[in-house]
Amino acid sequence: MSEITNEQVAHLANLARIALTPDEIEKLTGELGAIVDSIAKVSEIATPDVPATSHPIPLSNVFRPDVVGETLTTEQALAGAPEHDESRFIVSAILGEEQ
């Protein structure tokens, strides 16, 4: 079991400005202790001869071919727009910008 104490958890909570009850401090002490113990176990196994890995199984990206399919015409795309000119959507100015 790790050496994390209730006082350390209370101190960390105070630094983080988190109000904890004594029951919450007790519970977090045990949970943080379990986390520290787990990290210690991994550190024992992670020796220089064990290569670092980000995933337990090798992964590769799977891409589909980029094939041009059926697309909308400009008129079809603009048909449902509340406002548009001949080839573009018209939207309200934002952030005080002028058109």
UniProtKB/TrEMBL annotation:
Catalytic activity from the UniProt record: L-aspartyl-tRNA(Asn) + L-glutamine + ATP + H2O = L-asparaginyl-tRNA(Asn) + L-glutamate + ADP + phosphate + 2 H(+); L-glutamyl-tRNA(Gln) + L-glutamine + ATP + H2O = L-glutaminyl-tRNA(Gln) + L-glutamate + ADP + phosphate + H(+)
GO molecular function terms noted in the UniProt entry: asparaginyl-tRNA synthase (glutamine-hydrolyzing) activity; ATP binding; glutaminyl-tRNA synthase (glutamine-hydrolyzing) activity; transferase activity
EC number(s) stated in the UniProt entry for this protein: 6.3.5.-
InterPro entries cross-referenced by the UniProt entry: Asp/Glu-ADT_sf_sub_c, GatC
Keywords for this protein: ATP-binding, Ligase, Nucleotide-binding, Protein biosynthesis, Transferase
Top EC class of this enzyme: ligase
GO aspect biological process, one term: regulation of translational fidelity
Pfam families for this protein: GatC
Gene3D superfamilies: Glu-tRNAGln amidotransferase C subunit, N-terminal domain
Record note on quaternary structure: Heterotrimer of A, B and C subunits.
Family, per entry: Belongs to the GatC family.
Job description of the protein: Allows the formation of correctly charged Asn-tRNA(Asn) or Gln-tRNA(Gln) through the transamidation of misacylated Asp-tRNA(Asn) or Glu-tRNA(Gln) in organisms which lack either or both of asparaginyl-tRNA or glutaminyl-tRNA synthetases. The reaction takes place in the presence of glutamine and ATP through an activated phospho-Asp-tRNA(Asn) or phospho-Glu-tRNA(Gln).
The protein, known as: Aspartyl/glutamyl-tRNA(Asn/Gln) amidotransferase subunit C
